[in-house]
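Form 7-S
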Amino acid sequence: MLQALGLSPSEEAVYTALLARPTASARELAGQAGLGEGESERILLALAARGLVAAVREAANAAPDPAAVRVPRPVRYRLTPPSVALAPLLAEQRNALHLAETAFSRLDEQYRTTAARTAGGVVEVVVGVEQVAHRFLQLQLGAQRELLVFLVGEPTAVPREDTDSSENSALGRGVDFRVVAAKDYLSGHEVVRDVREAVAAGLELRTADSLPLKMVVSDRERAMVPLDMTDSGGEPSAIVVHPSGLLTALVHLFEREWDQGRPLFTTGAGAHGEPAGDQRPTEEELEVLALLLAGMSDRRAASELGLSIRTVERRVRRLMDLSGVESRLQLGWHAARVGWV
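Output:
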């Protein structure tokens, strides 16, 4: 207990042994503390030097006989009141702790500053709707060679019309534009139509059951990953990743999901001798086919497109008739062969 104030275990044992006595000798305290008398004496002298105990000599009961041989009485010790003796030690320890805390805070701040300077060239934090939207559009509009994109859920900072505009600009510049979309992104008739138009303009699209994050990678030189803070009431925010091992890992993640993704649409419709005229699938029928090939059920596809299940089934039936197949599995194979998807 008292070791925190600088007392050793032996000093604490002697000190606490003296608590129960008005005074005591080194021999008496040695027995109680389990020490040798010499060790007990040494400890008492050290405690006395620090003001924790005081040495007292008992007064003689009678006048000493001048002829008698004088035998020195054993020194006895009493405690200095703890409120007087221990309070300075406590204050000293508090001051030392305060100095240590101050030094710790200074060192921690220096470390954080150095780490921030080191990481500042790798990760950039962007906070706020306008700032996130501006940085996102910068990445897409600034791409010269390649854009790699993960699409997940609803946009939280960048309006879809702005995204469409930047996509069209990139495709117009001949940028290699590849997108992996999670199934939950393909919600609604307008989204499916917009995606099909983008694919027709040259965008390459594949779908995945789920994706771990939203992301855009521009020319493999910069990437942007939104941080999900809106659920906790915070402003939309994102990190922009510059050339580093982290950027390389994000590119590898995209390539892995791309390899495992399922093509949704292709730009080669009619390339394999597709029938002409009224024997060609309508846009509405191809939208149903795309959602089914993405793994949606008839009911889910009907809900997304605002149709009845019977309408979805009727469109699938017509596609099968056009293909001359007897099963949906065969329909998927035929659709891929002739470029419907």
